[in-house]
Amino acid sequence: MNVQESFNxxxxxxxxxxxxxxxxxxxxxxxxxxxxxxGVVIIGGIGYIIVCLGHVIGI
Length: 59
Prior knowledge:
GO terms for molecular function: protein transmembrane transporter activity. The chain is mainly alpha-helical.
């Protein structure tokens, strides 16, 4: 498969994705925002604990 065929396949696949995708409604958007915020808080908390343990251990 050459570069032109690969590019054409990418464009075709991208158009298909855009056709089936839709804009989330307010409830869906709020739910996604909450889940993302919870994930950020969890990852941040884990990072904070690791840094604190590093200071306690002396690394």
